[in-house]
Amino acid sequence: MTKWQNLQASNRRRIYRIARELHLPANVHHFLGTLMEHTRPHARRALKALAEQKQAQTKSAFLPVIQAWDRVYYCPDEQPAPPIPLPPLTLGTVFMSLSRLFRHLYGISLRRADVAQGEVWDSDVYKLEVVHEDEGLIGWIYADLFTRPGKASGAGHYTVRCSRRTDLDDDGSDFNMDAREETHIRRSQAFEAAKRHRLQGQDGIYQLPLVVLMCEFGNARHKQRPIILEWHEVLTLYHEMGHAMHCKLIVQSMNMMSLNLPQIVQR
């Protein structure tokens, strides 16, 4: 084992041990109590600063009470800034950094893939393969990153298809096919079969997860230069990719969303 592999194994054991201990009520209460004691002085200083701002504006003789809505009024949100000066961050650079991060943490890389005709709903949607260094392909991500007319606003992660064991399916009982429907159902089954694989260390056959990652970065059309992301957009992309990796690292038997930490640690 290399030094880095030893560190990975140590981190995985530590994560697994912490996960087993976190569910104990005494540990949860201890953590919340410690966190509250640590943050209380900072919260009091922040409330006093808000009260002084409110006092100055209202010309009150005493420090006024801070209401829940005062924070938004007296402390409008500011765009976050990177902790150190950085060069312009292109979309390609950010995805490369994500791929390197996931490779070091989980042995996973992101690889751009070709799309078939009609596979994506807009020409600006990218398809990414999620590839594990030992297991090979473990899922796909459709990255719908750019704003366009008619597209929903905001950022989000959507699980189109989660991991699920499929070799125990009872297709014969699931479908009561007649002659008119049989062709369509067979075609659908053939399409789904291409998305199913055997996973290393797992019994049975599993469908691979597929997710959509949606953001609203600047319009990519009619731009000759690379897309430069603002720092808050970089943070958003990292956040949503965290959800995507959660979906990719889970191995589960049932068709539902759940956190199966032992399988995450195993990978």
Features:
267 residues; alpha+beta; Neurolysin, domain 3; 2 domains; 5-stranded mixed β-sheet; 10 strands
Task: Write a concise synopsis of the structure shown.
The protein is an alpha+beta fold and 267 residues long. It is 45% helix and 18% strand.
Determine the fraction of residues in helical runs and give it as a percent range.
40-55%
Radius of gyration: 24 Å
Tell me the β content.
15-25%
The CA-CA distance between the termini, in Å, is: 16 Å
Q: What does this protein structure show overall?
A:
This protein folds into 2 domains: 3-74, no CATH class; 89-266, Orthogonal Bundle (Neurolysin, domain 3), CATH 1.10.1370.40. The radius of gyration is 24 Å and the shape is extended. The two termini are 16 Å apart. The longest helix is centred in the first third of the chain and has 34 residues, at 25-58. The strands form 3 sheets. It has a 5-stranded mixed β-sheet. The chain has a 3-stranded antiparallel β-sheet with strand order 6-8-7, with no helix packed on it. A hairpin with an 8-residue loop joins strand 7 and strand 8 (206-207). It is of the alpha+beta class and 267 residues long. It has helices spanning 3-22, 25-58, 70-74, 91-106, 171-174, 179-193, 231-249, 261-266; strands at 89-90, 108-113, 126-132, 136-146, 156-161, 164-165, 196-197, 206-207, 210-217, 228-229.
